[in-house]
Amino acid sequence: MSDTRFTSLDPVSLKNWRWAPFLQESIRAISVLQLEEAQIPLTFLDKTATFGSKSKSQQVQINTWACRSTKLRYARAVCVEAGRAASVLNFLVNPFHKYDLPFFGADLVSLPAGHLVALDLQPVLKLDKLHTAKVWERIIPLHKRWQCLMPWGGPIPKEAEPYFSPGFLWARLPLGDEGDQLISNVLLPAYKEYFSLYLDLVQEADEVSLSRSSNLLEGQKTYMRFRAEKDPARGMLTRFCGREWTESYIKNFLFDL
Ligand code: DBV
Questions:
Q1: Suppose 119 and one of 33, 95, 169, 185 were both cysteines; which one would form an S-S bond, judging by CB atoms 3.0 to 4.6 Å apart?
Q2: Residue 246 maps to a domain
Q3: What distance in angstroms lies between residue 154's CA and the mean position of ligand 1's atoms?
Q4: Alpha-carbon gap, residue 43 to 245, rounded angstroms
């Protein structure tokens, strides 16, 4: 694919990007695995666009980072910086379905109304105890430690519930110093613990049988289909980059199973 390029996005290149410490931590921590570079279509790698009215036009920069490993189909980060309009880190780790592993999902979103943070080791087969027990017994203590330190995010769409574990760390934080403090002193250490747990599970995982692997693949496809169809970012991305690019980004890269 000539129109792709390997990415070695240096998160520091997004200078004023609020979520850089989270991406730096993700890249530092995931480096324990034998990583390979991932191919990203150039049109998704580094996107800049202008949006808003002529009198008040604004700039948005969207960078994509990704890697893969023997157990991970990909780990990919979407980094959006649009000043006060939006600042987002959306990080998803998609394991190969021959391993009985959850997704790692992080949605860190700053909007004019405040910060929305979602963090979870998301089940591929939520009703399957063989899949969930070994994860939930380890994530629930983390959730108990950290959720009480941040304002709960409130009810989520009912249709999204099957895709979250009981360890789903979910908060809406205020803008300003209070929110900044919570991001640095609570969310970042919590993120490190959640991601460290995920990487431990990856390193402990062994290949499963063919029939188990096909069950896991069906669960992954259901998750990806839901996210592609219901992505809450669709409106924001369309406003920034237009419908055609947004639909291609969502379907051909973000949730491409
Ligand atoms: N969310 C993404 C990607 C984004 C992104 C790729 C590129 O999956 C941003 C950016 N998420 C984003 C934005 C919003 C949300 C909301 C901009 C705010 C939309 C708005 O309020 O205008 C977790 N993300 C959310 C919400 C949740 C999540 C629960 C609130 C949804 C709501 O209140 O309606 N992670 C997200 C999610 C699932 C998941 C919805 C579903 C399985 O796994």
A1: 169
A2: no
A3: 13
A4: 9
